[in-house]
């Protein structure tokens, strides 16, 4: 069974009743809200959201366009996008890592034999921020990871002001991260993925 077929919560979520034509027949419309793994064809939309979200704050992006395409070709199953009426509004991109802590080498790499999911970036489109979408997307992503047999934990690095946000998502701080970007320093955080056998048995995984 593929990872995607085992995940009922990645199927489209209809938030509005379907529209009908004047004759009473249902028109085919895009789902009001849909969660799915990203593909290389989504790379430009991903980068546009990321660039607007990060450059104004830090002057750089966690992933550049070629790196986004790289990860969406290598490990699209470790990404998750939130689409509203066909438009990408939020996303997460991850890859696998095979060491206890993140290092500078972790930024561009995907280690297929790893058991830690390195979350490179979470970003929300500027028009839908302050609506809780980042928290909801992370919650769904962590549920998704629990259905992947190779995933043991999730790792990420963030600036200190974002630590409370990720703590509310269930992450714990591990201390200063070895990775730096220019003058920026980060806190490394982790979330256990295993230890949720009951949830997996009852989630369709």
UniProtKB/TrEMBL annotation:
The keyword 4Fe-4S does not apply. GO terms for cellular component: cytoplasm. Residues 33-194 form the N-acetyltransferase domain. Belongs to the acetyltransferase family. AANAT subfamily. Its EC number is 2.3.1.87. GO terms for biological process: circadian rhythm; melatonin biosynthetic process; response to light stimulus. The keyword Phosphoprotein applies. Pathway: Aromatic compound metabolism; melatonin biosynthesis; melatonin from serotonin: step 1/2. Keywords: Acyltransferase, Biological rhythms, Cytoplasm, Melatonin biosynthesis, Phosphoprotein, Transferase. It comes from the Eukaryota. InterPro entries: Acyl_CoA_acyltransferase (IPR016181), GNAT_dom (IPR000182), SNAT-like (IPR051635). It is found in: Cytoplasm. It catalyses: a 2-arylethylamine + acetyl-CoA = an N-acetyl-2-arylethylamine + CoA + H(+). This is Serotonin N-acetyltransferase. GO terms for molecular function: aralkylamine N-acetyltransferase activity.
């Amino acid at each position: 069974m593929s990872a995607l077929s085992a995940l009922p919560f990645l199927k489209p979520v209809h938030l509005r009743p379907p529209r009908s034509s004047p004759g009473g027949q249902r028109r085919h419309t895009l789902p009001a809200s849909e969660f799915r793994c990203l593909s290389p064809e989504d790379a430009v939309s991903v980068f546009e959201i990321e660039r607007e979200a990060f450059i104004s704050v830090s002057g750089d992006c966690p992933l550049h366009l070629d790196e986004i395409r790289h990860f969406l070709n290598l490990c699209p199953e470790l990404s998750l996008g939130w689409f509203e009426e066909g438009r990408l509004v939020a996303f997460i991109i991850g890859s696998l890592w095979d060491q206890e802590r993140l290092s500078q080498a972790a930024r561009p790499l995907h280690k297929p034999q790893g058991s830690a999911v390195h979350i490179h970036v979470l970003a929300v489109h500027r028009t839908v921020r302050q609506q809780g979408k980042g928290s909801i997307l992370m919650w769904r992503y962590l549920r998704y990871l629990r259905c992947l047999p190779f995933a043991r934990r999730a790792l990420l690095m963030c600036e200190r002001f974002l630590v409370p946000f990720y703590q509310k998502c269930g992450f714990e701080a591990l201390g200063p991260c070895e990775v730096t970007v220019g003058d920026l320093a980060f806190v490394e955080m982790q979330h256990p993925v295993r230890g949720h056998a009951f949830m997996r048995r009852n989630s369709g995984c």
